[in-house]
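Give me the fold.
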Amino acid sequence: MADKTTRPIGKISRKYTFIILAVLSGVIGSIWVAIDTYASSAIVLSIDGTSNEYVFAIQSMLIGVVVSFLFALVLWIPISKKPWENLFQKFKTKKSQAVSNKSTQTTQRVIQIQQNIKPTVKRQFSFLGQFIDPQYQGIKIPTKKMFLWISLSGLFSGVNTFVYFILIKDMDLAVFLPAAQFVVVYLLIGDLVIDKTMPCIIEIQSIIMIVLGVILAGIDFTSGAFEWKSLLLVFLVLNVSAAIYVIFQKKVIETKDAKGRTLDSTNTRLWTLFFMTFFTVVLALPFMKQADWVVFRTTLKPALFPIALSMILVYIARILYVRALSMGKMAIVNSLSSVSVIVGIPITIIGNLIWPDHFLLPTGEYAWAVWLLRGIGAILVFTGIVGLSMSEVKIIILAKVKGGMEWDGEKIKGISGVEKVAAITGKYDLLIVLRLRTIGRGYQPIVKQLEKLPFIADIKSNTLLKEWNA
C-alpha cells in the first residue's frame, strides 16, 4: 500500500496528484493569457487608444523578471531547522579543517551519517518552495554547459514571447489557444526526421485533426474575415520557436553538474527568464519611438499589478508542468495540459461578461455558427493531441550478454527511444525499457540497433499493456 504521508499535496494518490498538476498547468496557462489580453487592451494603450504591443512586451518582461526573482526568494524561506543545522555543520566543518585533517574526516563522516538518517513517518520539507518542487534547494548558479543551453532556449523563447505579444493584440483568446498547440506537430515532425521514419496512420490522422481544428477556430462569419495573417505568424514563427525552445529546455534538464545533479525546474525557469527578457527587449526596442516611451512611463504603474500577477502565474504553471513530467509520461502530460484549448472558450465568455469592451464575442445572425466552429475546432485540436499521446507505447526488452564480455550501458542509452537500462539476475542479464509512439517504430529500428551491439547475445521483447500507479 502506498504511503500517503510522503506526499506534499495532502493524502491524494500519486496518480491523481499527477493529473491535477498537469491540468492545473493548462488551466493557469489560459488564465494568464486572459490577463495579458485585458492588460494590453485596457491599460497599455497608445494616444490613439490602440493597444501598444511593444510597450507591453518590454513592461511585461522587466516586471516579470523582478517579480519572478522575488518569488524565487520567497520560495527559499526555510520552514524547518534543517537548513540552519546544515549551515552550522558546514561552518563547523570548515573550522575543524584548520585544526586537523583527521578530525575533519571524522566530522564529515558524522555529518554524512546524520544526513542519511531520514524520517520514516512523514516527509519534512526544508524550504517553502519544496511544496511546489521538492528538488528546490534555493537559487543556484548553473554550470557553463547549462548556461549554453539556457541561453539558446532563452533566445527562441524571446522570439516566441515577442510574437505572442503581437498576436494577443488582435487575436481572440478562443482562437489563439488552439493555434498555439500546433507546437506538438513540429515536435513530432522533428522526431520523425531524427529517427528517419515515416509517420504512421495515427500520427497522420492527429496532425490533420490539429490543423483542421486550428483553421476552423480562425473562421469568423460575423466579420467576414479569416485571420490568415495571424495564423501564418502562429504556424511559422510562434510554434516553430516554441518547438526549438522545448528542445533546448530538454537539454538543460538533462545536463548534470560535477556532482551528477541536474538543475531543478524553479532555477531552470528563473535563469531562462533572464535570457528571455533580454532577447524580447532587444527585439522590441527597434519599434519603440519617443511617443512609445511616454506611454511606457504613464502606463507602468496601472499595469504593474496585472502584469505581476500574470508573470507569477506563468512561473507557477511552468513549475507544475515540469513536476507533472517527473511523475508521468510526457505525452500524457501534454494531452492533459492541452485542456487550455477547451478552457479558453468559457474564459472568453466570462471575460466578456466582466469587460465586454476587451473580450469581444461574435455577434450577428451567424454568431452561433462561429461559436460552433470554434467549439469543434477546440475539440479537434484537443482530440488530436490526445490521439498522439495515447498512441505511445512502452516496450520492455530482456537481453542476454555474451559470455566473457562487458556490456556498455552508455551505448544502449545512446539509442533513441531507450528510457532505462538495468542489470538483473536470472535467465537474462539486462532489462531495457523503451518508450515510443507506436510498436512498429519502436520494435523494428531500435531492436535492430540493439542486435548490432557486439555484447548482446539474445533479445526478448514484451509490450507493456497497462500500468498501475500508487
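Confidence is low (pLDDT under 50) at residues 1-10, 109-122.
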